Amino acid sequence: MRPLAGMKKDEIFLEVNSDERIGPFRTAFTNKSVTIYETSISVTEGDKVIRPLPNGREEFYTILETHYSSGLSAIPAHYTLKISKDSAITPPPNVGNTTNHISISNSQGFQVGNYNTQNLELVLNQLVEHINNTDASREEKEEAKGRLDSFLSHPLVSTVVGASLPVALGLFS
């Protein structure tokens, strides 16, 4: 009885020296590593593991690390190869473990987060400031701010503006 014979269900090839294909080798394949129970090969980091697929296509993996083991009494000598799939799409860095550091100085009108209403508040503040800084008469300024207040008081506008409406209406008091 050969130990580990039942675990070697996959067939792979190695591409060494960028052009020489050797194999096939029977192994237990995972997407992270391959163990080859063959000691006469010369394999190094950067070589390729080629995995034939049932549909006639092949997957290519780059060898990232090679580890040789002389084995134990029941485990024969072997190479363990850490691999990375060549066509794999890598996730953006820090997915699921993000830490943001934000430094803001001498700034107005910045926004942090999603779906914030700070932009509307900023625009309304600037609009009122511009109205107050015009050369128009006091009555014209009050009329313009009153019309803006009427616009924001409309039920449709209050539905769309939502949570920022009380802040916006406070600008005109």
Briefly summarize what is shown.
By secondary structure, the chain is α+β, with helices and mostly antiparallel strands.
Account of the 3D structure:
It comes from Oceanisphaera profunda. This is RHIM domain-containing protein. Helix content is 25%, strand content 25%. With 173 residues, the chain is of the alpha+beta class. It has 2 domains: 81 residues, Thrombin, subunit H (Beta Barrel); 53 residues, no CATH class. It has a 6-stranded antiparallel beta sheet with strand order 2-1-4-5-6-3, with no helix packed on it. Strand 4 and strand 5 form a beta hairpin. The longest helix has 16 residues. The termini are far apart.
Output the keywords:
173 residues; alpha+beta; Thrombin, subunit H; six-stranded antiparallel beta sheet; 6 strands; disordered N terminus; RHIM domain-containing protein
- Strands, count: 6
Mean pLDDT: 78
Approximately what portion of the residues adopt beta-strand conformation? Answer: 25-35%
Oligomeric category: single chain
Count every helix, treating DSSP H or I runs of 4 or more residues as helices.
Answer: 4
> What is the number of independent domains?
2
CATH class of the largest domain: Mainly Beta
What structural category arises from helix and sheet content?
A: alpha+beta
Give the SSE order as H and E letters: EEEEEEHHHH
Poorly predicted regions = 1-6
Protein name: RHIM domain-containing protein
